[in-house]
Amino acid sequence: MKTVVLSLFGYAFFCLSLLSLPDNVWDFLILYSPLIRSSFQQLLRRLPLIGAFREGEALKAKFIDCEASLTLGLNAFPKSLPKYKFYTHLIEQLVAVHRSKGVGLKKIFPEIRNHLIRDVQFERKIVSEIISGLLQFMIIFLTTWGFVYLSISLVELPPNHIIFFFMFLLQLIGSLLFFLLIHFLKKNIFEQFAKALEEAYLFSVLLEIGVPINEILERSQIQCGLFSQSKMFSSLSVRMKNLIKRLKQTGISPLDESKEIIAELWQFQEDEFLQFTKKLQVLKFFILAFFFLPSYFLYLYSIFQFFMEH
Fold it and tell me: DSSP characters for 267-301?
């Protein structure tokens, strides 16, 4: 268990070091050897914690190239894009519609780019929060076991292996719980936004190019997908259903209203980003208060008990 805890802290320090590398170091790698930089970037994108952030950076660079080629009328989209959240699938879906139906993407791409940039910035902030939390855990971990070592060496206290076991167990559970809860919160919140935005975008794009309503509903899944089923988007989905009903009855296009709903979805996600960072702060405090500090106090209690008995 000690090895596992130390590995987590070592990995956190390694990630923090990588994220802290200045831009001139990366520029030097480009000039010295593009192959070294490319291989190193591939390694970073496979790592836990910082992998998603690096994947987002790679997609952002590719997407800007796609947007530039579209502006120049080259239509030279890459065959594959880095996989980052829902953005990759959404872009691929829009490009497929562009190729098959001729829909224009010049108005849609800047909007997606801006949100992608903010999303990557958010991901970097989340990674920094996670690593700072792990470093705080490491400081308390080292302080606790440093105190244990000094007390045994200087005061010649007999080691209490049962107490040591429970101390390690608390610290290990706290570290693992920190990772698991972050993963659960991110997945539970932001995967819903991913699917909802994808469905709303496909609905809006297909509607704009005049695809028949039945085909729009089938391809976008706007009426039977997560957007309509999730309680998180209940008010927006009711509005969308009413707009679709109006379209079928009167033929009035809900294009402008659907774009407003998409804008509200983006804003909703931005608000959730801010709430998530606050939840991370609370989570770090919870782990420190209920797992790491108790392990320290547990050892202090064992010391007091020893002196009272002797």
Answer: HHHHHHHHHHHHHHHHHHHHHIIIIIHHHHHHHHH
